[in-house]
Design goal:
Bound molecules: BIS(adenosine)-5'-pentaphosphate, magnesium ion
Distance between the termini: 12 Å
Order of helices and strands: EHEHHHEHEHHHEH
Low-confidence stretches: none
Mean pLDDT: 96
Number of helices: 9
Number of strands: 5
Length: 190
């Protein structure tokens, strides 16, 4: 299937993880979710997990010093030769600049940055529902509010950052899952 080097951007609850799972299977490239890596580190009680949990519970970004090395290591693994999908990274301008340098070093330029566009009230109700159904620790009212605030302050500026470089493709993420996936498949097919 089509190789792909993609970044998935979008507010919390916009469907990054849901769609990255589908497109990763479609393209046969690994789905790299910093949030999933961190949640598994918390569950296993590793040093990283112990340090990250406080920030995750508060809905704050985990400090770059804990994230950047993790991404360098993960993108350097053997399974990334024909591509990767980054979900939840980069999350601020420093991380985006780091990624630029890293991808240059790897000689693996990013094909495009997909922005999943979903209104606040929709993402909030999705996360509250998941909180009830699956009990993800940060899917509660207070943490969701801060995750959205942190998104506005630190992550949303990346939309302009990538748009200025003509790397951004925005997709309406407020549609049934399968319709969003179909749009994304067309994008990766080029
Ligand atoms: P992270 O795990 O990245 O969470 P997030 O960005 O807050 O987003 P979510 O995972 O909640 O949403 P999503 O966009 O993946 O949507 P999903 O597909 O799950 O980060 C968690 C924390 O880790 C951060 O707060 C931070 O502390 C830390 N962290 C992570 N990366 C970091 C980084 N790079 N730097 C620093 N700190 C970092 O969908 C949401 C729900 O909606 C699901 O229940 C799903 O089934 C449902 N759904 C999805 N699509 C649809 C649809 N089209 N229609 C209806 N329902 C849908
Ligand atoms: Mg996610």
């Amino acid at each position: 299937m089509a190789a792909a080097r993609l970044v998935f951007l979008g507010p919390p609850g916009s469907g990054k993880g849901t769609q990255a799972t589908q497109i990763s299977e479609f393209c046969g490239v690994p789905h790299i979710s910093t949030g999933a890596i961190l949640r598994s580190s918390v569950a296993q009680g590793t040093e990283l997990g112990k340090k990250a949990q406080f920030y995750m519970d508060a809905g704050e970004l985990v400090p770059d010093e804990l994230i950047l090395g993790l991404i360098r290591e993960r993108l350097g693994a053997d399974d990334t030769q024909s591509g990767w999908i980054l979900d939840g990274f980069p999350r601020n301008v420093e991380q985006a600049n780091f990624l630029d340098v890293l991808l240059q070093e790897m000689d693996q330029p990013c094909d495009c940055v997909v922005n999943l566009d979903v209104p606040d009230e929709v993402v909030v109700s999705r996360m509250l529902l998941r909180g009830e159904q699956e009990g993800r620790a940060d899917d509660n009212q207070a943490t969701i509010r801060n995750r959205l605030e942190v998104y506005r302050q630190q992550t949303e500026p990346l939309i302009a950052f990538y748009r200025n470089r003509q790397q951004l493709v925005s997709v309406d993420g407020n549609q049934p899952v399968d319709l969003v996936t179909e749009e994304l498949k067309k994008i990766v097919h080029g």
